[in-house]
Amino acid sequence: MSGQRVLAVRELTAYLQRLLAGDGHLANVWVRGEVSNLRRPASGHLYFTLKDQVAALRCVMFQGRGRALNLRLQDGLEVIARGQVAIYPRDGVYQLYVAEVFPAGMGLASLALRELAARLEREGLFAPDRKRPLPLLPRRVGLVTSPSGAALRDMVTVSRRRFPGIDLVLAPASVQGENAPQELARALDLLGKLGRVDVVIIGRGGGSAEDLSAFNTEIVARAIYACPVPVIAAVGHETDLTLADRVADRRAPTPSAAAELAVPVRAELEERLALLAARARRGVEHRLQMARTMLERLVKSRGLARPQQELYYRQQYLDGLEQRLLASWQRQSGAREQALQLLVARLEAASPLAILNRGYAVCRRPGGGPPIKVSQEVVPGERVEVILSQGRLQCQVEDVKAGPACQGVTTPAGEPCK
Question: Theoretical Cys-Cys bridge with 245: which of 18, 251, 254, 304, CB 3.0 to 4.6 Å?
């Protein structure tokens, strides 16, 4: 034994504990077996053994976990338990610290889905108090579904029938397959950030549990939870219930029903507005009639005989204010009209047409282009177009002379050009 270190029991146990804790597979393991040696001490913890034909595993389920257990454990019951494998130092044995227990007839996929649903529920994603109300009259409705599916056609048809002309924004995404969860989450994120929508419908038509599996993923559930506007989930048929349905603000049994929830009937809104307008009009008329009756009663009272004369004075004062206001408005209107006429005159004076009317002309090449300002821009024999105040001349240049523009030229009035 020379050179060999002797370990204390606690040291070896601690070493084994570290080995087990560092194994990720043992941190969340599923074990199937038959319950035996079940004990329920006063502490509230559950102690039992899972066994099969050749092996046994000690298990403990603490009081907090056991209180949430929906299954009644008893010896001889075959179950699937999920938990963490660790060593109990006092006895030096490994055991399973159980978090959840399910009947053995459930598959691992169903167990994983139940575990995910329980975790999301503990985080508050399904809480009823966080559900947002749907807008009464959305300006724009976002749709997250397959562009080739019947669900899209149904939602468009129902929306157009209920409120013709309403804006629908489609964020296309696969609704089944390996890439469907990521595409659905990305479409929700894009609509929330860039779609400028008031409500979103996410859904698809019916199918098997495998077809609907994309809507039972954590990434889609969290994308619905993070969406800044209310979300309606319409996945499958009425009997199908996915995580997307549970986390959404409203659940619809079918895509068509989701469109009915999101889009109001235009005729019903118009009828409701008409009723409200009629009620408001009747209310105003009733208030006016009451005020008129009260005023007449006050006018006829003996105590307010002289105030009636004061009312006449006030009326006369208001008439004077009205006349002053009208005169002020007329003065301001006249001043503005005069300023406008001055601006019009200045614009007309600066207009090229006004210059042409004074006898000047514009010379340019045929077919358009800028005016010719310098004689060197053309050569003898070249054709030019001369624009007058009325009409145009098509001319041919016979000679080109350089020099000051005004040399030997007089204005239309006969005065020398300066």
Answer: 251
